[in-house]
Amino acid sequence: MMATTHVFAGLAVVAPVAYAVPELATPLAVGAVLGGLLPDIDLVFEHRRTFHFPVIGAPAAVAAIGAALLVPSNATAAVAACFVAAWLHAASDALGDGPEFDPATGDGDRAVYDHVHDRWLRPRRWVRYDGAPEDGVLAVALAVPALVVFEGWIVSVVAAGVVISIGYVLVRRRLVARLPEWLE
Ligand SMILES: [Zn+2]
């Protein structure tokens, strides 16, 4: 899935909370955006393993939500949103493809690493590859709650993300075909 799809998924989850508690909308949005993006910085380590926690991330997210409910503040809300979005990112990576860039060679059986059971989770391929048409549809659909609930710069960021996502989906296949010649 695209980075934007992960970010929009995190924002969609926190949107109802932000709607109910508008004074926490900004920290919730910032936390969700960071949580949607952060797992993929393991691209420079072992991708989909070092910072992806599809299983252990769930109790961590629950604990962070508990802390935010016990001590509501900007900081605890942002951390809880970040943990939830990061867990959702890692868990949903198992529903997509493997981490290969070229979908044609994407026949691997490693979607994301489960640190609890010490094994790789299999890709379900509901989204065949990042930037697939279904990824674009998912991204746009997941962006809607954020566009409705949030205000100001957050809406601008989400709208820009939607445009980038659609553009990426449109050029994605050509990118795979052309990249080898550009790299020569
Ligand atoms: Zn990921």
Automatic annotation (TrEMBL):
Keywords: Membrane, Transmembrane, Transmembrane helix
Protein name, UniProt field: Membrane-bound metal-dependent hydrolase (DUF457)
Species of the source: Natronococcus occultus SP4
Keyword Membrane: yes
Record has Transmembrane helix as a keyword: yes
Transmembrane segments: 51-71, 78-96, 138-171
